[in-house]
Amino acid sequence: MKIFKVGDTQKAVCESCRSIQNAVFALRDVPFSDGSGLVKNVLVGVCSQCDAVILMPQQSAPAVKKQLDARKKAVETRVPAHMVDILNLASSTLGASIDFTPALIKFYIHSLSSDMASARHLAQYLESDLAQGRAQKRISLKGDQVSLDLQNIKVNSALQSTTDVMKAVVLKINEDVLVHPKAQVINQLKSVAAAFA
Fold this sequence. Notes:
By secondary structure, the chain is α+β, with helices and mostly antiparallel strands. It folds into two domains: 9-71, Ubiquitin-like (UB roll); 75-196. Helices cover 45% and strands 23% of the residues. It contains seven helices and six strands. The strands form two sheets. A four-stranded antiparallel β-sheet has the order 1-2-3-4, with helices on one face. Helix 2 packs across helix 6 and helix 3 crosses helix 5 (144-157). The longest helix has 18 residues, at 162-179. It starts with 8 loop residues before the first strand and ends with a helix.
């Protein structure tokens, strides 16, 4: 893949001019075609004749994806306050900050979505005393994958509510990291936490 710099040029078709023109690479704010948002300060090829954006290099794709991901609806649920404390303590135990908590939950959700046997046992966590309490804190996760993984868990665990799945996942994290630490899982999570830092 060729990396372009601001000021580089390349020939490209300009729809406005209806001809092949020089595209000069520059940083621009570019709206999405459906008008639902804007990617700010991204490198694009601009027509040297009419100043229209006519080209987007491959190197700009991650910036566009990041902006698209930010628009995605979050999976949100409310849980008892002590569950957020469990997640924060587990993150700390793994040598990470509390900012690692969403990644920790996503790691578990993704793992459980492909492990039917473990997913089937999630409901048992909802029978514990720690599963009880008034929902006072919010857990919010973004991304297409987490939504798909949650759907898989619901199918495999017979838990219909996202809140129930989230509570069960938090209590599984509590079990695996804090109550009866599983060395293999903890070592995996420590590697993920180190990469996340």
